[in-house]
Amino acid sequence: MRIYLVILLIFLTTNIFAQTIKSIKYDGVVHISESVALRMLDFQAGDDIDEEQIDKAIKTYFKQGYFTDIYAEVKDEILTFYFTEKPLISVVELKGYKDDDNEIKTNVIRIKRGSLYDEKKLQAAKKRLIGVIGQDGKIDSVVEIQTEHLENGSVKVTFFANEGEEIIINKLSYSGISGLQEDDFDEVIANKEAQWMGWLYSRNDGKMKLQDLGYDYLRIRDLYMRYGYLDAEVERPFVKTDFHNYTATMSYQIKEGDVYNINKISISQTKEVTKEQAIREVIALKVDEPFNINTFREDAQRIKILISDYGYAFAQVIPDLKKNEKNNTAEVIFRIIPGEKVKIRNVLISGNLRTLDRIIRREIYLGPGDMYSLTDLIDSRNALGRLGFFDGQTIEEKRIDNKTMDLIIKVKEASTGNIQLGGGYGSYGGFLVNVGVNDRNIWGSGIDVGLQVEKSETTQNYSFNISNKKLNDSDFSGNFSIFHSSYQYNDYTVNTDGVSIGTGYKFTRFISGYLGYSYSKNNYELDEDFDDGGFGFFFEGYAKSSLSISVSFDNTDDYYLPREGFVFSQKFEKSGLGSEANYFKSRTKFSKYNGLEDYIGFDAIFRYKARYNYVADNGYLPVAERFYMGGIRSVRGYESYSLSPIITEEDGTVRRVGGKQTFSNSLEISLPLVPKAKMRIVGFVDWGFIGNDSITEYSRGGYGAGLEWFSPVGPIQLMFAQPLNKQDGDKTSSFEFTMGQRF
Q: Residue 628: phi, psi to the nearest 5?
């Protein structure tokens, strides 16, 4: 009997609330609709429900993450859920560390305007921010979050960051080394011992970089493997930190082992794609020489390119080593798995809002139905870069199956129409400026149209030019220009009116030729009191009718800012075709570009540029057709065209009459300054020679630094220079700038 009473009591207590609900209502819900909310319930209107079911429903709603409070009420058989929603975040600010940096807010904080206030997400953002500050080598950093409820019901969230202290490495030691020197490790590690005046460029400031601490020992081991130490063991660094003055000492324990020489290079192909000898020709490692891990990797990549160029897009090259510890030799093994030959199915283009598809396609060396070639793919990407139409370009390989793929070309268009500016400040001539308007890709057609106006106290230039690098999408090019110029010197002015026309042909991917004709009429205006000093023949008017032919090689990867490749051009001009001016002129140019990021870890670029000019007098060589040096395109630190052989008149007046041959060259190093703003700093040294009978009659140099900036209106160069080997009478220039020119 007692058992029945207990069961009855339990039944009554668990069902005392159960009642029929006629309807279900919601109050304060915005982020989910009532229809969605109803579907989330295990019951519906008309069912008998109890407290347990209501509690379960509240928990289900709360898990959605939209609410800070939920409760329910049953009245007159109506169940009503009351919601208090989380407020929206309308403002996110960052103070104390890279104040309101959009990149940090987007990639680190990750709290967007309009998102719901969520304490867990804010704490996660705080943790990420502290981690990023720590990557800068700062410890004991503190981040506080402040919230402010605004009148519109939203929340303003501010992250206040108090950056910690930087740890300075005042002692770094190595034990167990004999084959390499301590200085060798500085080339590869990020955490280095502080040097005196470490804040200077190329000196070590000793700041600890925590994010690199776990990789430096691997970099040291990799360096040993470049010299053949295959058994080298490098332990993680032992770091002892003094938190009173935030300094640290570090030490590495190293076991070098012996140097291994290569005793054999083996090649195996699962399917013969090419003769083994062809593969061996691209391998740089040599038998009986020390093993080098870098060359080992590069050889594997060169083999992959070779195999891929036969159409094997998914080829694998698996490098391996077989060590013989008894005699310290190693067998190098390259296992090649070609896979299947791959054809291109489609070439798809995206991102070209302005440039026509065909302008892009004609630079791509792979098309639908072609066999895959990695070399063609790389050359295509570089060809797009040389156009100068895009801020960036990528070619993605989308695998369809084992035998087909699509190429997806993604471009980010740059502004090709710009106002070109140039000028400078000289110690004699003051400030000079020229202005031009051009579009290298007018209406997205690939046609270059330009109008240039240059005006200063001493010069006037007006020109119009139009050119097409690919006439009718062929390998032929064409150009036409008309021009007028006026150059005022001390006592006279040279006026020139002319026209030129020409055509070119692209022989290979990198080699092109050009044939052109130009005609100009030139005359001198002499001041009333001008005394020619017996050199009046220098100032006779003349006509010039000339034919020119040139050839150029260009395999660089970008038009404005190349990081690899070189440019070589040779131009010959013969004047005297039915005109007074009669001469033969040669112009040679060479530029070499090397990106150094793979060697030093950041985007530095080395450049070498050289120019050699020569002219032979075949009857009449006007002063204006001779060569002059100085300025941003030859020797910086001197006014443009101011360096020249001279003649001295009876009254002591010095006349610059130009030289018959000149050579100038430049060394430049370009470093990133503000990468986000596409701003770089460049240091340079120029040196040049000019003369008539001997090229070394005059020798001048210049050095300095400048700013390179891809501004919204085009690439800008600001150059500050000082002369070298300055002589009395030289016209120096401390500042020059150009816009719209190749760096």
A: -135, 150
Superfamily of domain 89-162: membrane protein fhac (3.10.20.310)
**Tokens 């490790």 found at:** 185
Token readout for 501 is 């026309």
Tell me how far apart the alpha carbons of residues 567 and 578 are, in angstroms, rounded to a whole number. Answer: 34
CA separation (Å) from 721 to 119, 223, 611, 682, 736?
56, 39, 20, 11, 8
Boundaries of every domain in the chain: 2-85, 89-162, 167-255, 261-337, 344-369+377-413, 417-739
Token pair 């891809």 in the structure block, residue = 710
3-state SS class at 209: coil
Distance CA 645, CA 639 (A): 15
What are the tokens at 227?
Answer: 């010299």
Enter the pTM of the model. 0.63
CA nearest neighbour of 680 among 604, 734, 606: 604
Which residues, given as ranges, of the chain have pLDDT below 50?
A: 1-16, 425-430, 490
Structurally, at CATH architecture level, domain 2-85 sits in Roll (3.10)
Question: pLDDT (tens digit, 9 = 90+) per residue, 168-197?
Answer: 899 999 999 999 998 889 888 989 988 887
- Homologous superfamily assigned to 344-369+377-413: membrane protein fhac (3.10.20.310)
Cα–Cα distance, 409 to 458 (Å, whole number): 48
Q: Which residues of 192-207 are buried (b: 16+ CB within 10 A; e: fewer)?
A: bbbeeeeeeeeebebb
The closest of 178, 266, 193 to 224, measured between CA atoms, is 178
Residue 602 carries which DSSP code?
A: S
CA distances from 38 to 59, 638, 639 (A): 14, 82, 82
Cβ atoms of 285 and 296 within 8 Å: the answer is: yes
- Domain made up of 167-255: CATH architecture: Roll (3.10)
Q: Which fold has domain 261-337?
A: Ubiquitin-like (UB roll) (3.10.20)
What residue has token string 């207590």? 13
How far apart CA 390 and CA 309 sit, in angstroms, is 27
Query: Does the fold of domain 417-739 match that of domain 167-255?
Result: no
| CATH of segment(s) 417-739 | 2.40.160.50
CA angle in degrees (0–180, nearest 5) for 601-603-605: 115
